Amino acid sequence: MAYVSVQGARPAPAATISAFVLNGALPGPSPSLSWPSGGEAALGVEGMGNLYTHGPQTSTPIASIAKVMTAFVVLRDRPLAPGAPGPEITITPAEVTIYHRDKASGQSVVRVHAGEQLSERQALEGLLLPSGNNVATILAIWVSGSVAAFVNEMNATARSFGLSHTHYTDASGVSPSTVSTAADQVRLAMAAMELPAFRQLVDKPQVALPAAGLQYNVNALLGTDGIIGVKTGFTPEAGGCFVFAAQKVFSGHVATVVGAILRQRATAIQPSALEAVFSATTSLVTSAQSRLEAVPILRSGKPVGVVRAPWSSPISVDASTSVTLVGLPGLRPEINVFIPRRIATPIFTHRELGVAVVTVPGRRVRVPLIVAGKLPGASFLWRLFDV
Question: How many domains does the chain have?
């Protein structure tokens, strides 16, 4: 009798939990893309973080694509809600003098008048669509008090993003000593496109400004092949440059390809450097879009682990929601399952028990895990005879 009392009162061992080894790789090697024949280029898929690169990835003049960083710093320091005009900037006589100076030297400019008021949005439109170098100077002074102080902010931001091959010496990119690589510019463009106001601005084909009137986006590819921005650039030193974003609906998911092509030169077939970079972009975008894959990394209800107790049949631990990644072949997301090694019983159906974390560079998705069935506590008879 004493044995029965002791055995029946003895606590049962905790249930044990083990996770399965999960592999969510997008199948296949890195794709063969239609890269430009010269210069350098880089491409990635928004939210995936991985980059495919071509060419040397050495620092080179980037011309007006430097204005992506200019706009990013302005919007970071003076946030702008989508559609909102933002505060007014009053044009000074000194800034009119800058306009005439830049125009006389053959730069890309936007006409301004002394006393004219531009909203922050209008100034950014003048910066990003017709690519006004003088507007870059106006915004730099408005945000930081001087161009030099603003450029310091640009470089500090580049360092914070790990853009180790990027250095700015001006706000417009006209200086050949403002340099970067295609890979660095793709990383920056991905960050800028996370700002709703920036994303909205670079997707506009034209804008009407107070003194300058109707101004057109230099991005001639806007709206073709799903292209939704970002920024063109050209100087004799830099050649034709383009940072672009292009969307495609793939298997019910919207995938955004972000890329950069630098140092494109005019040829007999492409008589201008911008035409050359646009042609190279079209080939690269269409080749990348044709190789996109949608791969379910986790499926709702799919077992990712199991709970075991010696007095019961095993019970699966399932993903509560599905995770599908759209990207290019060769992507290797990291999947980690975090669950306790032991747990007291009873355990009831649909109890949350840990989490699966799917990680790619720049993105992390957490999926709660749930128990698929009920695991009762050990019965009196099992305690009596099996403990």
Answer: 2
Q: Please report, in tens digits, the pLDDT of each residue of the chain (387 residues total).
A: 444 454 445 566 778 888 887 766 676 777 889 999 999 999 988 877 668 899 999 999 999 999 999 999 999 999 999 889 999 999 999 999 999 999 999 999 999 999 999 999 999 999 999 999 999 999 999 999 999 999 999 999 999 999 999 999 999 999 999 999 999 999 999 999 999 999 999 999 999 999 999 999 999 999 999 999 999 999 999 999 999 999 998 777 788 999 999 999 998 888 899 999 999 999 999 999 998 888 788 889 889 888 888 878 888 888 898 888 888 887 777 788 888 888 887 888 888 888 888 877 667 788 899 888 887 877 777 766 665
Residues 134, 222: one domain? yes
Choose, from 18, 37, 59, 67, the residue flagged as catalytic.
Answer: 67
CATH number of the domain that residue 255 is part of = 3.40.710.10
Give the length of the chain: 387
Claim to verify: residue 21 and residue 52 sit in the same structural domain: no
Asked if residues 307 and 314 have their Cβ atoms less than 8 Å apart, the reply is: yes
Task: Write out the residue range of the structural domain in which residue 358 sits.
Answer: 2-25+296-386
> Is 175 assigned a catalytic role?
no
**131 an active-site residue?**
yes
Question: Which residue out of 5, 37, 119, 131 is catalytically annotated?
Answer: 131
Task: Find the catalytic residue in 5, 34, 37, 64.
Answer: 64
